[in-house]
Specification:
The chain has a domain of 196 residues: FAD/NAD(P)-binding domain. The chain is built from 14 helices and 20 strands. The structure holds flavin-adenine dinucleotide (FAD). The site of flavin-adenine dinucleotide (FAD) has 38 residues, from helix 1, strand 3, strand 14, strand 18 and helix 9.
């Protein structure tokens, strides 16, 4: 007899036998931010949910650990005091702005805009993914309709006329519909939406935790250093909990492959020789090993639904192509999918046509934003342009304020992608 931790057992004990079959209404593969947000938004709705996660908790996730206002806004809308409990219970560092470092090493501090009205995005946080993901994961255990299977890797997914099947080493899970929230290398995507995945739509990031990094901002601003050798990628320095700093960089994957860049060596080289970084890391010590992983960028369009399946978060290529932010978007896809699936369950219709509504809502939410951000990504490839913007912003209050509002306003973001803006900037 195989032992699986089923946290719902306090409500509904399940006997698990080798090669047992389990039947649910909704199968969710992956208990990261996307999968947990979907499950929590469907909690208490009478829909039996089986959430299948390959790693034991606390699972390990390579990340910069920055939580933007997007994450907090989605959390506020999850039922069951999730936001309030996050504020009270989870160890984290609040951050009140961003320090941009231009390729010429000029810096500018941009505070997050805080409006007095209730809808204003709160400042961001830096929170280790172990802590953040465990917090969301543990929330699942409060609900009778959510059954969590840990340490179960889905290897195969099959689609039938009236159900879907996810197969792990020892079990078969059946559902009316399946949500692939299983990250960048999604098995659900590979089986149900196979296709070419071009390298130009992936970024790779490497990060390490460091002690004793000098020169951190007194209000924990996160730092993005657009170093010439990384453009359009950047080096980040994020003040974290336990006196550590999460630092690393991201680069386009096709460049890393073409130039055969060894990311660990490059990290070492940058912190020891780059004139901006070397003085900051002179007395720094690495805690543990640096680790790298891929980010699937929103520049890649794929259909995110089909007969009896939907894709969420990284599995659905929802990472911001300019900033590399993916947690907020993954959670937003969890929230959107919950509202769509509720309708599907009430109509008992999980056909490709019915689930197209999910694609439409995802496109409505992200298409324009990703377009704008991919223009920003291209512009960030120009060191000269970047230097000019930061130089002007250092001298001109209007430009600084514009940059400050770019994180909350899509209109401002659009403005920043217009050639007209840069022409006018020349004469400011
Ligand atoms: C180096 C780096 C730095 C980053 N920095 C930031 C940042 O600072 N801020 C930010 O917002 N985003 C950042 N991101 C992006 C962010 O980490 C992801 O976008 C986010 O984790 C996506 O959430 P998700 O739930 O879609 O996927 P994931 O967090 O990857 O969760 C997927 C889950 O599915 C499970 N799983 C996978 N395969 C299977 C399987 N076959 N069977 C069962 N379970 C499975 C995994 O174990 C995992 O728990 C960074 C990414 C990288 C690589």
């Amino acid at each position: 007899m195989q032992k699986i931790r089923d946290y719902s057992s306090k409500f509904a004990p399940i006997e698990l036998h080798t090669m047992a079959n389990f039947e649910f209404d909704l199968l969710i593969v992956g208990a990261g931010p996307a999968g947990c947000t979907l499950a929590l938004n469907m909690a208490g709705k009478g829909i039996r949910i089986g959430i299948i996660e390959k790693d034991p908790s606390p699972r390990h996730k390579i990340c910069g650990d920055a939580l933007s206002g997007k994450v907090l806004n989605v959390m506020k809308r999850i039922p069951g005091n999730v936001y309030e409990d996050f504020l009270q219970q989870v160890e984290k560092i609040p951050s009140r702005g961003i320090r941009f470092v231009a390729p010429n090493h000029n810096e500018i501090d941009v505070p997050f805009l805080l409006h007095p009205d209730a809808d204003s995005p709160p400042p961001g946080y830096v929170c280790k993914r172990n802590d953040f993901d465990r917090f969301l994961f543990e929330k699942l255990m409060n609900y009778q309709n959510i059954h969590v299977f840990e340490g179960e890797r889905v290897d195969r997914v099959f689609h039938h006329a009236d159900h879907v099947v996810a197969v792990t080493q020892n079990h078969e899970f059946r559902g009316k519909v399946i949500a692939g929230a299983d990250g960048v290398n999604s098995t659900v995507r590979k089986f149900l939406q196979p296709g070419r995945e071009p390298k130009e739509h992936f970024c790779v990031g490497i990060r390490g935790y460091f002690e004793n990094v000098a020169g951190l901002h007194p209000e924990n601003y996160i730092e993005l250093a657009f170093l010439k050798s990384l453009l359009p990628g950047y080096f980040w320095i994020f003040p974290s909990t336990g006196g550590l700093v999460n630092a690393g960089f991201g680069m386009m994957q096709n460049r890393v492959s073409k130039e055969r860049i060894n990311l660990t060596q490059k990290l070492d080289e940058l912190i020891n020789t780059d004139p901006f970084l070397a003085p900051r890391f002179k007395h720094a010590r690495l805690a543990g090993k640096p680790e790298a992983h891929r980010l699937p960028l929103g520049t890649h369009y794929l259909k995110r639904s089909g007969d009896r399946f939907i894709l969420l978060g990284d599995a659905a290529f929802l990472v911001d192509p300019f900033s590399g932010e993916g947690i907020g978007n993954a959670m937003a896809s969890g929230e959107i999918s919950a509202s769509i699936l509720e309708q599907n369950f009430s109509n008992n219709d999980f056909s490709a046509e019915a689930l197209l509504t999910y694609d439409a809502r995802i496109n409505k939410r992200f298409k324009q934003e990703f377009k704008t951000m991919s223009v920003m990504q291209r512009l960030a490839g120009s060191a000269k342009l970047f230097n000019m913007v930061v130089n002007k912003a250092r001298k001109n209050n209007d430009v600084r304020e514009l940059l400050s509002s770019m994180f909350t306003s899509q209109d401002v973001m659009k403005k920043l992608t217009s050639p007209d803006f840069y022409l006018k900037l020349l004469f400011k």
